[in-house]
UniProtKB/TrEMBL annotation:
Domain of life where this protein originates: Archaea
Formyl transferase N-terminal domain ranges (all copies): 6-178
Organism: Natronomonas aquatica
Gene: purH
Pathway info: Purine metabolism; IMP biosynthesis via de novo pathway; N(2)-formyl-N(1)-(5-phospho-D-ribosyl)glycinamide from N(1)-(5-phospho-D-ribosyl)glycinamide (10-formyl THF route): step 1/1
Keyword Iron: no
Protein name, per record: phosphoribosylglycinamide formyltransferase 1
Amino acid sequence: MQLAGMASNRGRNLMHIADTAPGGAAFSVVLSNEEDAPVIEKATERGIPTEVVERGPEETRDEHEARIIERLESYDVDLVCLDGYMRILTETFLEAAPTTLNVHPSLLPSFPGMDAHEQVLEAGVSVTGCTVHVVDETVDGGPIVTQEPVPVYDGDGIEELKQRVLYEAEFSAYPRVIKWFAEDRVTVEDGDVSVDGDESGQFPARRLKSDDRGRELRYGENPHQEAAVYVDGDSAAPSIVDAAQLNEGAKALSYNNYNDADAALALISEFEEPAAAVIKHTNPAGCAIADDLATAYEDALSTDPMSAFGGIVALNRQCDAATAEAITDSFKEVVVAPGYTDAALDALFEKDNLRVLDVGRGADLDVGADPLVESDLAGGRLVQQRDTQSIVPDDLEIVTDGEPTDKQLETMCFAWRTIKHVKSNAILFADETETVGVGMGQVSRVDAVRLAAMKAEEHAEGKGAEGAVMASDAFFPFPDGIEEAADAGIEAVVQPGGSVNDEDVIAAADDHGIVMAFTGQRAFKH
């Protein structure tokens, strides 16, 4: 799509569009009605042809606009973009030119005309923004194509507000509209604008998300990084962000505490049975389910008590005294549970800086987690559905000559629920419903197997890899991972399958008397 830009001053939106080329759009020409307008020099620097058409002292508006149209006719133009063009256009121009757009620094129809920022501050509104609209003969009154909101904060002055509107909102909204036009998605008819594909739903075409700052943190991941935590007021799920910290005298959660505690809560929310997990740097150091909470915690801790030092403990039941006393036997940073007995609090409060968080919304964690998860990218965000997959024995495809026992099938299902919360490449060893060794975050899957085996052999207390089940979050590309597992004493494997070398991997399992099941779906976590 070929654009004509018209500006009376800097034309910063035009230059931003020229630099980003939304939808592949490019300027055929930039025109100004002021000879010394900075936009002319900036366009020339970018190799964009320019035109200056000043209005003569005796020239009427119609005559001036007719000369502008005459100049534009020398160029291939599909869309005209105004940016601080300080003239109201007449029918002479609008009927002869292609669709013409303008951006205004407020949420029209509020605060049209000059001095929009001053009007916003005088009115005392809490939200302003910008509007991209089709130009008609009125002042800022044409059909609206899109808007971008901007918060107005207490203490804002004109310059602070202008910076957010002009360089954040307008730099987002104007290119968006250009891209829509370039993709032939915009229809302007009888004063109405429609955009094909600008739909809502789980993954809407545009995301407008407003969070309120909960509090500023001491620092981020490292002491040289500033940080804050923001609250999503719409979430109904159990949350670390709005969890009550019961021992108010203890120090507040750090950035890393929030991350780790959130990962711990996500893991133990997988299970209906009493479950406990110990998390370190968002990875499980151990996880278990049992008939009672204290046993589940002891089983989880014994997977890797050395790595659990300074970790996060999460429970999916009200914490009782026996569990609390076991937790305080070694140094932990945070405990997360949906409630505590008075005796449990007495035990936990003995540790001055053990943060005790109550995420309770009932007797247990019976409210589903938020359906979407997201992460930052430079220049954007990734958004995906939460991985809620859960398997039962009937979901498994047995691919080896040997068949798993009922106990192994139960362990496979437990291991698969747990490995979803281990950073990839991930390998997890489990025995019945407790972890034995975890190999996480490796760039080689066979190294992840070796790490899990080392953890089970050297760090686990009262249990080991011999006779255990191994889970892998993705397929084995070669038989070497199975060879390593066999050396460790693994007797059963659950993995997605789907490698071009599946036959070789299955043959290796058969050679070592290992039973293997495919889930048909992987469980990457990055």
